[in-house]
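user: can you give me the structure for this one chain? tokens are fine.
assistant: on it. calling the predictor now.
[tool input]
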Amino acid sequence: MARHALLLLMVLFAANCVRATPSLDVIELVRNRDFNSLEAHFNAIQSSFEQGKTDEYALLDSFRPFYTRTDVLSDELKEWTDAHPKSYVAHLARGTYYRKLGELNRGTSVSREVPRAAMNYMDQVFEISEKELTTALPLRRNPYLAVLNLLNIARYRSDTVASDRYLAEGNRLLPGNMLVRARYLDHLKPRWGGSYAAMAAFVQRSKLEGVDAANLGLLSAMINDDKGFVAQTNGNLELAVATYKLALSQAEHANPRLQRDYLSAATFACQRGALGSVRCP
């Protein structure tokens, strides 16, 4: 039964996709160039985050309307930053927009499989994004989301020095964070030039930094999620099933949102019934 389901997975399995939450109100405000309303909306969210009333996941999600594969808002966002040159949220929105344009057009394949035109486009829009995000950094007390975006850019560029710098800054700004840590760990996977030993060392480091048991379980599970994916890709379906089950077991007390985002292979297999009675995120 499990073998049959996993054979189906070999056909259906797709790379991670962005599950953006559309916000027609935000996009409408941008297209209508209602910058004062945008300022009020996003500054309220940022202030709530700085006061500890909004968590990092809600903060991240508030900017998801700017996730798109096509360049449809560049003029309006440029006008926003021109109208509010000292606005953290304006520069963050534009930086987020161009960062996601680069990522989504590049895709999730290893570099050798990405068309040169897509890599060139990513480099081009990353330059715009980086400028906007670095401009944003000194404009608010806790520019955590700008740092997270800059970390993503650094990891896609394989810039270890910048990645380590943004990891340290993200941990300083939000010591108990998971988004910065999970993103950093994700790019330590062997497919991106890292290793499972490096991933395990990062998990141990996070333990020493005080990350709680539930989130340590998730970080450890990310290693097994990738090992299961590799086993599945290589046709070792029995090992894939066992490793996916282990990953979900390790992460069972972690945030379900993070489980779905960072254990995508195990979640995909589980939701399609390949893992038997295992509870899916």
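assistant: here you go. Residues 2 and 276 are 7 Å apart (CA to CA). Confidence is low (pLDDT under 50) at residues 1-24.
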